[in-house]
Write a structure and sequence with these properties.
By secondary structure, the chain is mostly helical. Helix content is 69%, strand content 3%.
Length: 219
C-alpha cells in the first residue's frame, strides 16, 4: 500500500489497494509530516479568502503596534485546529479506502456529506461565524484573546466546511476541479447572511451574483 498527497487529497499510490491492516496505518503515520504540509497548502487555497473578514476584525480591535502579533496568533490558533481536523479527515479517507477500495470510496460517504450540507448543525455553525469575539487591547489578555478567536473561528469553520474539504480528498481523479468547486461553495456560503437553523438544501449563490455583477460593470 502507498499513499501520496496530490495537493487536493490523500490518494492511494500505484500498486496494491489500501488494506485495513496495522501496516497501512503505520505507513500513514510515517507519511504524516508530508501529508500535513499538503493539507495546509490545500487549507490555504480553500480557506484564505474566508479569513479576510476575521483578520480585519483582529486589526480593528488591536493597536497598530500589536496588529502583526495579534494576526499571527489568530492564524496560529486557526491553523493548529484545522491541522488536527485534517488528521481526522485523512483517517476517514484511509478507513473509507480500506472498506470500499478504489472509486467506490467517494460514493461510500456521499450520503453523509450531502446530509451534513443540509443539516441544521451546519447552518448553526455558519450563523455563528458572523459573531466575532471582542478582543482585549493590552498585555497577555490581548494575546490570549487573539489565539482564542483563531481557534474558535477554526472550530466553526470545521463544523461548516469539513464535508467540502473531505470531498476532493476522496476522489481518485479530478482533484483540482473538485477543489475549485468546493472552494467556490466555501466562499459563497461564508458570504451568505445568517439563515434559519433547519434542514434544507442550501444553494449558495451570493458569490456568483457578485461575479456576474462585476462582469456586467466591466463589460
Amino acid at each position: 500500500m502507498a499513499l501520496h498527497f496530490t495537493g487536493a487529497g490523500i490518494m492511494p499510490g500505484p500498486g496494491k489497494d489500501i488494506g485495513a491492516s496495522p501496516h497501512s496505518y503505520r505507513m500513514f503515520a510515517a507519511m504524516a509530516p508530508s501529508l500535513a504540509i499538503g493539507f495546509m497548502l490545500m487549507l490555504v487555497a480553500m480557506m484564505a479568502p474566508t479569513l479576510i473578514i476575521p483578520i480585519h476584525h483582529v486589526c480593528a480591535q488591536s493597536f497598530k503596534h500589536r496588529r502583526p502579533r495579534s494576526i499571527a496568533l489568530f492564524v496560529l490558533g486557526y491553523g493548529a485546529l484545522w491541522l488536527a481536523a485534517g488528521g481526522l479527515l485523512a483517517v476517514i479517507v484511509l478507513t473509507t479506502e480500506a472498506v470500499a477500495p478504489g472509486s467506490h470510496a467517494a460514493s461510500a460517504v456521499a450520503i453523509i456529506l450531502i446530509g451534513w450540507q443540509c443539516s441544521p448543525i451546519k447552518q448553526q455553525c455558519l450563523n455563528r461565524l458572523h459573531n466575532h469575539l471582542s478582543l482585549a487591547a493590552f498585555g497577555s489578555a490581548a494575546d490570549w484573546d487573539a489565539l482564542r478567536f483563531g481557534t474558535k473561528h477554526a472550530l466553526l469553520c470545521v463544523g461548516s466546511f469539513w464535508a467540502l474539504m473531505l470531498f476532493p480528498m476522496l476522489l481518485h481523479h479530478g482533484h483540482l476541479p473538485a477543489m475549485a468547486v468546493a472552494t467556490f461553495m466555501v466562499i459563497s456560503e461564508r458570504l451568505d447572511q445568517p439563515a434559519p437553523v433547519r434542514w434544507e438544501v442550501r444553494v449558495p449563490s451570493k458569490l456568483a451574483r457578485i461575479l456576474v455583477a462585476q462582469a456586467r460593470i466591466r463589460l
